[in-house]
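Morning, I've got a small favour to ask if you have a moment. It would help a lot if you went through both lines with me. I owe you a coffee for this, so here goes:
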Amino acid sequence: MPDPIRIANADLSIDVSPLGAEMQSITTADGKAWLWNGDAAFWTGRSPVLFPIVGKAPDDTLLIDGTAYPMAQHGFARRREFALESTTATVCRHVLEASDETRSVYPFDFRLAVEHGIEGRTLTVSADVENRGDTPMPFGFGYHPAFLWPLRGGAGKPHTVTLDNAAEPERQPLEKGLLSATRTPSPFIKGRLVLAQDQFLDDAMVFPKGAGDGLTYAADGGPALEFRFENLPNLALWTKPGAPFLCIEPWHGTAAEFGGSRELKDRPFTTVLLPGESRRFAFSVTFPG
């Protein structure tokens, strides 16, 4: 794996790998780590960037204007090495551009720039997706960061996810990795979800609508992480049962629908950029002081 870039201030230290522009660690000034360490016994990911799809395609195959292309779950960006475009003490920006290799599975001229920046105790991760080609470009985009569960200082305490909007969004289950046509009642009560490992026995909890643009992940009476989302209307929560992490995943785009269209442009919440257009997606998280 390429050597990571470190950005740091008096409150936070972040390591970002050029491979996938993926964060490798988040450490606060007290020496506490907050990001999952990628232990292969459970899951080697830490904070992958999802592009040009989120979730699975039927039989790992996309249709783009009727032509079939192979596409693994969550797309290819997380497996590609990004170029370091710029770096300062507190900001780094990595870029992935279309190549002959990417065009063989995704026939568009794109530019994906992922920036990590810190200010005080707040980390902001943003992405700009640009269509540099001459045809409309459909895609999905998402973030997949994994945070420790239990949080540092939260062992033995109930852990919760609390939505800023106090909503009770419906859950849309996954069926063979694809979105089921059914809906299930919300596990949130007035915006609050008490986490339990058995909630993830059937894969991720996906909330396509209504989760809002902010939440708090916390241990009762213990540490809390405060999240804000920009242009990321879908939310998923995931862990492997028994694993000591929780993925808090804001997306713009979801897995294909079970039994539905295989066309990329027909996937729920797909973004389509016209030639020359770009779109920004971002999240921030503030850590305990």
